[in-house]
Design brief:
Heat Shock Protein 90, 6-stranded mixed sheet, Beta-Lactamase
Amino acid sequence: MDLVAGATYNPEPTAVAAARRFVLETLRSWKVQASDDLLADAELLTSELVTNAVVHARTPVQVTCRADGSEVEVSVLDLQPGRTIHGGADRTGDTDRATGRGLLLPAALSSSWGVTYAPDAKAVWFRLRPDGTAPSGSRVYLAPPADVGDGFGRAGTRSFAAATARNDADLVRLGYQELLRHAVELARDAVQADAAYVLIADEDGVLRMRAAASLDAQGKEARPSEQANLMAPATHTGMGMFLTVYDQLTENGTDGTTSASVLPQSFLTVPVRADGRVAGVIAVMAAEADRFAERDSALVQQVADQLALPLERARLNEHDRARRGRISFLAEASDMLAGTLDQEQTIALAAQLVVPRLAVWCAILLADDSGQLIPAYVWHADEARNDDLRYLLGRVPPQAFFPGNRRQWSLWMPPGEAPMPEDAEPANDLVWCFPLLARGRSLGVLVLGRPGDGALGSQAVDLAEDLARRAALALDNARLYSEQLQASHALQRSLLPAQLPVIPGLDIAAGYRAAGEGNEVGGDFYDVFKVAPDRWRFTIGDVCGKGVEAASVTGLTRHALRILAREGHDVPTVLQRLNALILGEGSAVPFLTLIHGEIIMTPSQASVEMVCAGHPPPLLLCSPGTTQTAASSQPLIGVIEGATFCADTCHIRPGDVLLCVTDGVTERRSGERLLDDDNGLQQLLSECSGLNAGAIVASIEREAREFGSGPPTDDIALLVFRGQ
């Protein structure tokens, strides 16, 4: 069975004698059957190797003894793998060297010796035979002499030497949180403290707690027994003690360490200096009094100095990562907010972007018509608390929402009134208010809430302010879009008849569908109105263009047709005068196409006189199921000065159908094909034989919508008359 023992020494002159004594006492305690010469050789070689490590490596040294019955092995580990040791049998003759002669002794006295390298440490070892067998020549190995645990150290509790066995390249590979944990564990292990923590400056230069570590149970058991009676009660040691101290320091400052008997009696801090400035603080603490001495301060400072530059690089990288994260978050938030023009969706999205990244809950309050702020949307990380939060917000006076306030809701409760138990936690949250300003207009406030210990840093405040500006702009865009949509719908309704008249003997139906999202007024229109007993006029038209300009021409046309028709002018005369009127408005007024006709009802049929002015021709479906064009195409309105028109006549008998549509139907496109190619509209109409007027409108609208792969790009208007 292998025997293993180890000890760690600081790079001090006394380390040589202590290591020599450790090896001698260890071998004697194991009762190794060895001659006095072997013990003397082991003592001498240990002295030489430890001296080399202390003088040249200048790092903590770990000495390990092993015995397996046939050989005794001693290894000396230091933390300077960069100082390469060249070995070989020919070194025994190199007696004139001024330095490095200490390694001549292992080559001369040991049965074998070697050097084992790791990325962050090296170990020099030698072996001696207890039976006294002399070495048959110096044997040098560059491979590990035996399996070792914990970075060449003895298996078991992590030693300080093993913990510090990391070079700069290895530290750089650690992540920020890993490096912070490594720092506090290293500081704790260096002086066997009960707890340690590290404060690192944030982007505002404020020192904040980033990591902490306590001495685990295994570490406590490994401490010398004579110190056990000096420990504080178990409930106030380790991490529990650290948290108590940290809270007390936060509340009372440095005097907090003396305000309670349960707090540690030993407290040591050292600065973490990088690039000539203090970038943080490493602190260790212990429950017993006078635990730390100058040597402990030097050890913790050594840890701080070793980790200062890697920590500073990691801190700057973390700040850069956080900055890129904020930029990415704002870009993503802007895209999401710009992706909707619905006010309610914009409000909900803004609140849900805030929670939980910046706050535990968020509320958006908007001004009503009287200017009073009312909750428009409330969102808590725990959705079950939304109603409670809305209740609290409803009881807060308006002055509490002054932008920039950082208040506790409990300060604003009515005198003598306390929140309900379920409201107690959010009632004590800290609150920040950010104005929702867009285009010089105040829309409301964005309210953020966090628990009492969850203060917002300046970077988070800046991020919230930026998000509030973007949310306000998106909300204002949605508001303007909603107002424009309402105005467009109102204007569009004014250009169409509120309802169709009842014509005895005819079934009438009309359909209209605006292209796109309906936020612009279309140029298509229709109208049916009575001019005399048993006489009605109808119109369906399409003004070139969209928007307000097209709407103005549509309104002009619709009202001019009504006035001229009621003055008794026939259909051709009405269109001639309308043509002159449009041309008289100048070239800025767009042209239009239309069908205008007069229906004269008789007991057996309806006679229709109409003019098709550049418009898709009307179709007549006769009761046997045949279709035909009901009028010929004539010049557009508003293009040719002095244009004349003549009326075409058709008859609508019971079961017959007269169909008038705009080019949004006939020119509906599917790839290279139009709906009306090869008389496609006539075929659709013939399939509607036997349907009533409303069913015919619905059928043709559906066919036109489904004909293309995407939504219609032009307005669609239909007018159907069916004989009864």
